[in-house]
Amino acid sequence: MSAGVSIRALHAYYGATHVLRGVDLEVAAGEVVCLIGPSGSGKSTLLRCVNHLQPIAAGTVHVGGELIGHRRHGDALHELKPRQVARQRAGIGMVFQNFNLFPHLTVLENLVEAPVAVRRLRRADAEERARALVARVGLAGREGSYPRQLSGGQQQRIAIARALAMEPAVMLFDEPTSALDPELVGEVLGVMRDLAGTGMTMVVVTHEMGFAREAADRVVFLDEGRVVESGPPARLLADP
Ligand code: ADP
Ligand code: ADP
């Protein structure tokens, strides 16, 4: 089940650098939002605040109505127990620029490990679902391969499948195609387009304007840690 994301008056810092300066962003369940903005504008930090990878200095983040983080300047961070944080993170899929597959595990093992360890699925059930996901990203037959035996595009498709193996309510993508050779970008965007069609809630940081035009319900522009524009791609993105 997809969930919405609600971000209110969010502030975040790196040391003394004030990176997010009051971000408000509502993403409806099933909505696909492309996050666009200059390098250093805080896009990656914003995703990381949703996934417990970045401390929130002020503001609130909810996913599926559930509080991820809340703080006012100077107050102690809203305390979640480590188990709550682990459970919430399990429900939020994240795909990074550099694939981040476990190099010593096969494709199938990469998809099975977390569902067995975190969601306590039976290994046989996790494997059956993993095979279906490998097929869904177009890589049936490569279950026994190691990541280094795959192209970058194939590795990223497996990274997406691995995130989906946890049955997340939300998927976050942080420049998922920017480390790829140009000829491999399309296959990853194809998988993301299919996923968008399933009603998955997606927040995608990308420079791929073609993808944003075709797959996004909405594009959101970030600049200097604030949302400066938000609307349908047809209105905000000029034709190529
Ligand atoms: P974007 O994803 O839009 O390129 P980021 O969220 O990665 O932006 O970074 C926003 C700002 O935070 C940048 O000015 C960057 O210098 C700073 N920053 C990002 N990561 C770190 C870090 N690990 N340590 C210190 N500063 C960082
Ligand atoms: P600005 O960047 O808007 O000029 P400041 O950096 O002076 O503002 O800080 C504004 C507020 O943020 C202050 O209340 C301060 O306590 C808080 N603050 C500053 N640095 C951090 C930090 N690293 N983490 C959390 N809160 C911070």
TrEMBL record:
SUPFAM superfamilies for the chain: P-loop containing nucleoside triphosphate hydrolases (SSF52540)
Molecular function via GO: ATP binding; ATP hydrolysis activity; ATPase-coupled polar amino acid-transporter activity
Keywords: ATP-binding, Cell membrane, Membrane, Nucleotide-binding, Transport
EC number(s) reported in the record: 7.4.2.1
Membrane topology: Peripheral membrane protein
Catalytic activity annotation: a polar amino acid(out) + ATP + H2O = a polar amino acid(in) + ADP + phosphate + H(+)
Main location class: membrane
Domain of life according to the entry: Bacteria
TM region(s), chain numbering: none
Protein name: ABC-type polar-amino-acid transporter
